[in-house]
Design goal:
The chain has about 130 residues and is of the alpha+beta class. It contains 4 helices and 5 strands, in the order ααβββββαα. The protein has a 5-stranded antiparallel beta sheet with strand order 4-3-2-1-5.
Amino acid sequence: MNSLFLPSLALALQAPAGGMLGALTGLAPMLLIFVIFYVVLMLPMQRQRKALQQLIETLKKGDRVVTTGGLYGEVTAVEGPTVMLRIADNVRVRVAKSAISGLEGEASDKGSDKGSDKGNKGSQSS
């Protein structure tokens, strides 16, 4: 057992050959992963958040929106931090602006599958 332990102990006690350069090359993969993570995930999320905030700030009467709860409605009034939505005839709901997830046309485009349109066109042409 001693013969197996001594060579590994000797390797563990050796000083790093590269010094500061060795430390930087050890951190390089982690930094690269962080940069890729930031570019792929964080930047698009920030852009989307800014676009949604701008949309919420520019809401006006007549806009058709969808809420985070899945309610579709038409904006009938904008009152500070809330909007009044008409979700059916003679049915109006007061909703927080922060609950608006997008315009109705944009929300349905995001959720639909682009490949499903091809099948529908073929069945309608017959």
